[in-house]
TrEMBL record:
It comes from Rhodotorula paludigena. Its cofactor is pyridoxal 5'-phosphate. This is Aminotransferase class I/classII large domain-containing protein. One of its GO terms (molecular function) is pyridoxal phosphate binding. Belongs to the class-I pyridoxal-phosphate-dependent aminotransferase family. PANTHER family: TYROSINE AMINOTRANSFERASE. GO terms for biological process: L-phenylalanine catabolic process; L-tyrosine catabolic process.
Length: 441
């Protein structure tokens, strides 16, 4: 675009120079964008390819319209809007009633291990805002931080402000994506600011057992490493590796999360300090509402400075939008248990059918999901790397899917299981033909 010529009476003949940006903003990168840069989704199909595009790259449960939020969620937001109570500035850490609703939702009661009050909660701009806040408060350029691999690569983007060194600990696909504990432990040193956990996992669709989480917690306790636990999929899990934990055989707690199948880290790590990340984006199927939270778990009282840091960080942007914050107590109180269970039934149904279909395609190795909204599938085909694979799949079959490289893992692809099953099955038919043409020689 060429600049418009408007004469400037104050400085005739002196054109404006292009405005420069900060070095911080230049460092912000989107790893996914970089990997799929060569693919133009709006490009017309290749000659001879007469198929509509199937876009499986969108990790957003609202895009196909098949998984709407609960009517109670919408009603609570309408009521919030009409109440006139959401017009002013909330406290920068969030309205007290919103924080209390979050606290009550996660508090395990006098006989539980994880106690939460509203003073432990900071409201944020989605889980993304919570993650950026937690990372920025805990780490700086002298720190290293431990991230899983594969991972939700936004963690890397959110680490830009902190400028910390990122160290990746391996997750083991052959063990349902459990942590390689020895590898994790080998990465810790005196400059480790925190360890990020993500369970249930994006992109793995895995859900760790209570025993495995206790093993991780033991390492964290041994080295006194703070955990940031990204539990944006808390309660969105229907299966777990290993023996069924005792809690799973006890009655489900109405309105709570799927305790027993899903294990909240803070409920088994003892008194060790944790920041728990959450949001209404995924379990309530409304990522656009942009409300999340950080919960401080600190029975030993070693996080006083961190609490202050979170408050200060919150002060920068004065908290997330007031209307959804005010609706939060109603959303939690009124959403029936059947909403959560039917969401999970649907995710399980779709992921099982998809898994079974993919298993029948030579060259593919799907892994059965246990939770979250994803199925990850390995491939062994004649391509140099993931970039070549997704580019060919797009141009030959008009399927777009995020490759494992977008999650720092090569030779995998990630399906989103909130996609309607007929769309996925259609994609599988094309994938089958594609794989037949590209078997390893
Ligand atoms: C979607 C997602 C987030 C971000 O959630 P928002 O509330 O939409 O910001 C964070 N972590 C993981 C693992 C996710 O999949």
């Amino acid at each position: 675009m060429s600049p418009v010529t408007i004469s400037d009476p104050a400085a005739p003949g002196k054109p404006w120079k292009a405005v420069r940006t900060s070095s911080l903003s230049k460092r912000i990168a989107n790893p996914i964008r970089e990997i799929i840069a060569g693919i133009d989704l709006s490009a017309p199909p290749e000659k001879g390819v007469d198929k509509p595009l199937i876009n499986l790259g969108l990790g957003d449960p609202s895009v196909f319209g098949n998984m709407p939020p609960a009517p109670e969620t919408i009603e609570a937001i309408e009521a919030s809007l009409k109440s006139g109570r959401a017009l002013g500035y909330p406290e920068s850490v969030g309205y007290p009633d919103a924080r209390e609703a979050v606290a009550n939702y996660f508090d395990e009661g006098p006989s539980g291990n994880w106690r939460v009050t509203k003073n432990d909660v900071v409201m944020t701009h989605g889980a993304s805002g919570a993650l950026e806040m937690a990372i920025s408060v805990l780490a700086d350029s002298k720190s290293n931080v431990l991230f899983p691999k594969p991972l939700f690569t936004a963690y890397e983007t959110m680490s830009t402000i902190a400028g910390c060194e990122i160290r990746y600990y391996d997750l083991l696909p052959e063990q349902n994506w459990e942590v390689d504990l020895a590898h994790l432990e080998s990465l810790i040193d005196e400059n480790t600011a925190f360890c990020m956990l993500n369970n249930p996992s994006n992109p793995c669709g895995s859900n760790w057992s209570e025993a495995h989480i206790r093993d991780i917690a033991a390492i964290m306790a041994r080295h006194q490493v703070v955990v940031v636990s990204d539990e944006v999929y808390a309660g969105l899990a229907w299966d777990v590796s290993g023996p069924t934990p005792a809690a799973a055989t006890q009655p489900r707690v109405e309105g709570k999360f799927n305790r027993g199948v899903f294990t909240p880290y803070a409920s088994v790590c003892g008194p060790a300090p944790v920041l728990v990340i959450g949001a209404i984006s995924k379990r309530w199927l409304a990522p656009g509402f942009r409300v999340g939270w950080v919960i401080v778990h600190d029975p030993l009282g070693v996080m006083g400075e961190v609490r202050q840091g979170l408050s200060k960080w919150a002060f920068r942007i004065q908290g997330p939008n007031s209307t959804v914050q005010r609706a939060l107590p109603g959303i939690f109180a009124n959403t029936p248990e059947s909403f959560y269970t039917s969401t999970m039934d649907e995710l399980k149904r779709v992921s099982t059918a998809l898994y079974e279909r993919l298993q029948r395609i030579p060259g593919l190795k799907p892994i059965l999901p246990q939770g979250a909204m994803y199925l990850i599938c390995g491939y062994d085909l004649d391509f140099a790397d993931d970039k070549a694979f997704v580019t060919a799949l797009h141009s030959e079959e008009r399927i777009f899917i995020l490759p494992g490289a977008c999650f720092r893992l090569d030779r995998y692809m990630r399906f989103v299981t909130t996609t309607p099953l007929p769309v996925l099955m259609d994609a599988c038919d094309r994938l089958e033909a594609f794989c037949a043409r590209h078997q390893r020689k």
